Amino acid sequence: MTVFALIIINKAGGLIYNRTFHEGGLNKLSTNDYLVLAGTFHGVHAITTRLNPVKIERPSTAASSGPGGAPILTRPDPPSGLEVLESENFRLQCFTTLTGTKFLLFTDTTQANISVIMGRVYEMYSDYVMKNPFYQLEMPIRCDMFDRKLSSHIREINNK
Amino acid sequence: MVIYSFYIFDRHTECIYSKSWIPPSEMPQPPPSTAPPPPPGTSHNDPKTTALPDRTRSSQKHPRSAQTKASDDAKLIFGTVFSLRNMVRKLGGDDDAFISYRTAQYKLHYYETASCLRYVMLTDTTAPSMRNVLHQIYINLWVEYVVKNPLSPVEHKGGVGVRNELFELGLDQFVRGLN
Fold this sequence. Notes:
Chain A: Its main location: endoplasmic reticulum. The complex is a heterodimer of chains A (160) and B (179). Chain A is an alpha+beta fold.
């Protein structure tokens, strides 16, 4: 049960946060390689949404009707992109926020409850990055509080 | 478990075999074309348009015929697995191998042989790991019916030698037996 690393990609495909929690899990890359990786992943993620082989079922509007009896027109969820990637040595969970920011969590293949960890990371991002008045949107994240809370939370999981 | 489609790519990145088990009625609708049609009259005198080969013109008339869509999909799938495989090998080391990815709608399984043949299978999201299935297809169908076929060429350019009856039949039976 180990969380290897966290990468945050902004909606334009730029790398805004990159942190390794466990040495030896993943290869060490240069900063440039991480930037390339973030951009590549952003593109691949967009392609994977287009590869959807089946038609998305439209929910029947007759079943749900509003208070006045008028049917509520629901829009089907847009096809989602890559969510989990598995390889022999690691597992990558990708969480896309509604605004298009992507959180990439690299764990070992046996890690359970990744979505819970992801939810906690997103919560910390909202609390310590988004509420930081000095943080500029879409720019690299340099927030001490976020760094500190994140490492203490992940350390707890890795030491379990 | 539902299997949607299956692709084989050779080491020259070409799609040498593809098969879909989705009935045409359940295929996703192509998005409506947003580009306005060219104004009439301009194309008649334009030498560049008249010089276009027949294939291009007919594909413009039917913007996304089933065949173009299938070949476009194969190219997109190859691009995706190629990028992800490189990404995985960069992060996990050279001995690491990309196995599968999942979205909310489908799951893609990947298997690569030592000779750089790439097997890709698209299934629904509940499917377990299909790595051994792809390996079985390689051993029991590819090697038996394509590699051991004396009439089959070494390189399957354009899918020559792959689409033989035994391979097609064996694959269809094998996949239908999985469901």
